[in-house]
Design goal:
It is a single chain. With about 170 residues, the protein is mostly helical. Helices cover about 70% and strands about 0% of the residues. The longest helix has 29 residues, at about 95-125. About 25% of the residues are buried.
Length: about 170
C-alpha cells in the first residue's frame, strides 16, 4: 500500500509563492533587480506602517499625547508586528527567535534614533504636519530596514539546509 505524502501549504508559503510569481512578471527587466523578499517586505511593511499611522493618530490626534511619545508607542507596536510578519511570511526564518529579536532590537533602535526621532520629530519641529513628517521619515527607514532585515536580522546561513531558497 502506498502512503500518500501529504503536503500542507501554509499561508506563509502561499504568500511567498505569490511574491515570486508577481516578481517574475515584472516588466523592463525589473525581475532581475527586485527580490521577492523585497516585494514581501513592501507589502508587510506598508500594512504595519498603516498600523503605525493609525496608532499615531489615536495617541496624538485623539488622546493628545505629545508627538514624541505618540511616535514612540506607535513605532514599538508596528515594529513588533513587522518582525513577526516578516519572520514568518517573508523570510521564513527557523533560526532561534531570541537572537534574531535581539539583533532586530538593535536595528530598530538605530532606525528609531536616526529616522523616526531625527527625521520625523525634526521635520515636525520645523513646522511640517506630523503625518507628512512621519511619511518622509518612513521612506528613509524603509530602505534601511529592508537592508538590515535581509542581510543582518534574517540572513541565511549558506551551510544550513533549513535556509529557504527564496531570494
Amino acid at each position: 500500500m502506498h502512503e500518500l505524502a501529504e503536503t500542507t501549504e501554509t499561508i506563509a508559503d502561499r504568500f511567498t509563492r505569490w511574491c515570486v510569481a508577481v516578481v517574475a512578471r515584472l516588466p523592463w527587466g525589473l525581475r532581475r533587480l527586485v527580490a521577492p523578499t523585497f516585494l514581501g517586505f513592501a507589502l508587510i511593511n506598508s500594512f504595519t506602517f498603516a498600523v503605525d499611522l493609525l496608532l499615531l493618530t489615536v495617541f496624538h490626534g485623539w488622546w493628545g499625547l505629545p508627538v514624541w511619545l505618540s511616535i514612540t508607542i506607535a513605532y514599538v507596536c508596528a515594529f513588533g508586528l513587522s518582525f513577526v510578519l516578516n519572520r514568518t511570511f517573508n523570510f521564513h526564518s527557523h533560526a532561534p527567535v531570541g537572537k534574531q529579536a535581539a539583533v532586530y532590537g538593535v536595528v530598530v533602535v538605530i532606525n528609531y534614533v536616526a529616522f523616526i526621532l531625527g527625521v520625523g520629530s525634526g521635520l515636525t519641529a520645523l513646522g511640517l504636519e506630523y503625518h507628512l513628517a512621519r511619511l518622509l521619515a518612513g521612506a528613509c527607514e524603509a530602505v534601511y530596514m529592508y537592508s538590515a532585515m535581509r542581510w543582518v536580522v534574517f540572513r541565511r546561513d549558506p551551510k544550513s539546509e533549513l535556509a529557504p531558497h527564496v531570494t
